[in-house]
Amino acid sequence: MNERDSENIAAAFVERGWEITDDENVADIIVVNTCSVREQAEQKAIGKLWHLVSHRRAQKKVLPIIGVTGCMAQNLGAKIAEEVAGIDFIAGARKTHVVPDIAIKIYEQRIKEPLGDEIFARAKPDRKEKRELAARTVIDISDDLTSHLHIDKHIEKQEYKPTALVSIMQGCQMNCSYCIVPKVRGLQRSRPTKEIVEEVKALAERGVKEVMLLGQVVNAFGREIPKQNGVGEFVRLLQKINDIDGIERIRFMSPHPSYFGDDLIDAYSSLEKLCEYVHLPMQSGSDDILRKMNRPYKAKRFLEIVEKLRAKKNMISLSTDVIVGFPTETDDDFAQTCDVFKQANFDMAFIFKYSPRAGTKSAEQLDDIPEELKESRNQALLEILAKQSLEFNNALISTTQQVLVEGCAKRGADMYMGRTRTHRKAIFKGDDSLIGKTLPVKILRANVSALEGEIVS
Which range of residues forms the domain containing residue 182? Predict the structure, then answer.
C-alpha cells in the first residue's frame, strides 16, 4: 500500500512538470514514505533520514529538499523533526496528496532566497540551531478523509510492467489491539466502484495484465452498501473487473477473516480471472490471544474459511500473518498457533515478533515475553513454514503452469522470472520479448521460495 502511495506521489510530481530520478545524489527533492506497523520499519526510516540530512550538510548545500510522509509521519509528527534536525517537511498518511505542493513550495522559496537558508547546509548545527531547524519544518498531519481517496495516478515507467497496484479504500475500523493503522490512516473510506473500474480500464489500455486491489481491510470494501441477492459490493467490484478486456488476473491484499463471506469464497470458482491465491491473516491460533488482540473470530471459524476455500480450489495457495510473543502468550498458546498453522497448511507467511506500538491498546500491557523466547518461537514457526512451502512447490514439479512474465531474474544470463496464478515465482530462460506475456512453463525443479522451469510450446 505504501508502494502504491509512493507511485501516486511520484505521478503527481510528474504531472507538475518534474522528472523522477533513481539517483538521490542528483535529486532536488527527496520524499521518504514511511511505515509504522513495526518498530524495525521506523528505525530504518529514521536511519535513512539521518543519512540524507548528514549528506546534505557534508556537501554544504541547501538542497535537496527532504521530506517525510506516511504512517510514521502521521503518528510521530513533530518528534521526527526534533530527532532529525534539518528535515524540511512532514506530511501525514492522510495528506500524501498534498506532498508535491508542499515540497515544491519549499523548493521555490529556497531557490529564491538561498542566503537565508544556509543553516540547512551547516556541518554541525548547535542545540539552538537544531531547535530552529525543527521549528522551521513544515508539518501537516491534519485530518483529510476525502480528497486523497481519489488515488488514480499511475506514473509512466520506462521499464514496462504488466502488473499494477490499485488502491480501493483507506483506513480501518477493526481496532486490533496491537495495530496502529486506525490511528494513522483513520476510519475506513471506500472509493466509488465506478471510479475504480475506470482506473482499471485505463490500466488495461496501457497493457497491464494483472491488478492487485489494495486496502487495509480490502474485503470490507463498500460494506455500507446493501448486498444484492446475497452478493456484497466487494464481490460486485471483482465481477466488474473480471469483465474488463485485457485484464487477465485479479488479486487483492489484505482481507480480514470477518469479511470472508460465502459470496467471496464462491467467487474463486465463478470468476476465472481471480487468482488461486489468498492472503488470510490469522495472527494467532489461540482463542485467548485472539480475544486479547481484539480479533473477532476464533480458530475454528478461521479453519472453516480455509476448508471452504480449499473446497473451491484444491491447489489454492494460502499465505498469512502471524505475531509471536504477544503479551501473556504461553507455551500452550503458541502450540495452538502451530497446530492451526499446520491444519491451514499455509505455504507462505509473514511471521513477526511482537513489538508494542505507541498509541495502541496492547502497548498499555506489559511486554512480558522475553526477546529470546520470541525469537525461538519465530524460528520454530519459520521451520514449519519452510516444510509446508517446499511441499507445495514440490507438488508443482512436472506440471505446466501459466506464468505472467515480469522481467529479468537476478540469477544467470538470459534468465527471466514471472509468477504463477498461485503467486509462486518461476524462473526460466528467455528474452525481453517475453515480458508481459502469459506463457506455459513446465516446472522442472523447486525450492522453498521459487520454481525453475522451461517454456513449452
Answer: 159-269
pLDDT bucket at 149, cuts 50 / 70 / 90: low
Number of domains in the chain: 4
Q: Is 80 exceeded by the pLDDT of residue 234?
A: yes
CATH number at residue 168: 3.30.750.210
For residue 283, give the DSSP letter: B
Q: Does 191 lie in the same domain as 111? A: no
- Distance, in Å, from the CA atom of 281 to the CA atom of 254, rounded to the nearest integer, reads 8
415, 427 Cβ separation under 8 angstroms: yes
- Is there a domain that residue 151 lies in? no
Residue 94: is its pLDDT beyond 50? yes
* DSSP letters for 33-98: EE--SSHHHHHHHHHHHHHHHHHHHHTT---SEEEEEEHHHHHHTHHHHHHSTT--EEEEGGGGGG
Q: Does 43 reside within a domain?
A: yes
* Dist. CA 52–CA 379, nearest whole Å: 35
Phi, psi of 137 (to 5 degrees): -70, 125
Q: What gap in Å lies between CA 338 and CA 332, rounded to an integer? A: 10
Residue-wise pLDDT tens digits, 415-428: 999 999 999 999 99
Instruction: Report how far apart, in Å, the C-alpha atoms of 455 and of each of 56, 336, 416, 431 are.
Output: 49, 42, 11, 12
Residue pair 306/280 in contact by the 8 Å Cβ criterion: yes
Do the beta carbons of residue 273 and residue 265 sit within 8 Å?
A: no
The model carries a pTM of: 0.89
CATH number at residue 421: 2.40.50
Q: Is the pLDDT of residue 147 over 50?
A: no
Q: Tell me the pLDDT tens digit for each residue of 265-308.
A: 999 999 999 999 999 999 999 999 999 999 999 999 999 999 99
Q: In this structure, are 22 and 40 located in the same domain?
A: yes
Distance CA 197, CA 228 (A): 19
Q: How confident is the model at residue 130 (pLDDT cuts 50, 70, 90)?
A: confident
Distance CA 72, CA 42 (A): 7
- Over range 396-420, report the average pLDDT: 94
Residues 351 and 405 in one domain: no
Q: What is the 3-state secondary structure (H, E, C) of 393-418?
A: HHCCCCCEEEEEEEEECCCCCCEEEE
Rounded Cα distance between 286 and 277, Å, is 24
